[in-house]
Amino acid sequence: MRTSAVGDVTILLPDLDPADLDPTTDLNDNLNDNLSDTLVENASWRSAVLDDVPVRGSRIVGTDLSESVWEAGSLFGCEIVRTDFSGASLSGVAVERCVVTGSRFTGARLTDLRLKDVLFEGCRFDYATFTRVAATGAVAFVDCILTDATWSSCRLPKVVLRSCRLDRLELESCQLTGADLRGNSFHDLKTTLGNLRGVTLSDEQLPDLTRLAVEELGLTIRGQ
Hints:
This protein is mostly beta strands.
């Protein structure tokens, strides 16, 4: 069993052997097989539509899924590497025991996703919108770009963010109790203090937290 520890969280990872996977680049030929035990490399699936399709035990590498639409369905036990989801729309998808590395979600719309044992590493989520995304197990973002993104009505307790860029990330009505946000700059974070209730921070982040409090309370700070 493969695992990855990020902070105090241990994430179960897929354990795939490429030799056991069936290679393909044709999406339509594999929908009847539910994309199970498949190796997809350098495919062009731009604007693809996946409606309630389960994807299991598969490895997707260097594939263009920009502007694609994913409705319901699931991703289980998958590895996704250097894949482009720019402008994609994912709604109602359950993602479990997956690792996503070096992939691009610029401008993607992620709605009603359910995450459990998911690791995002070195991914871009700039200008992406997370709406009602919920974690039911361990979830971590490592070395990810979340600039100008929006998290709205998300429930991500105990999520871990490490070495991520959060410039102008906007939080709206989120529940992040128990989240570990150490190692990230809050300098341009756009949020009220309520969204940070119960999170774990480091000493170095206290000046940014103070700035947020001063702005929210409308305080005037003057010298004596």
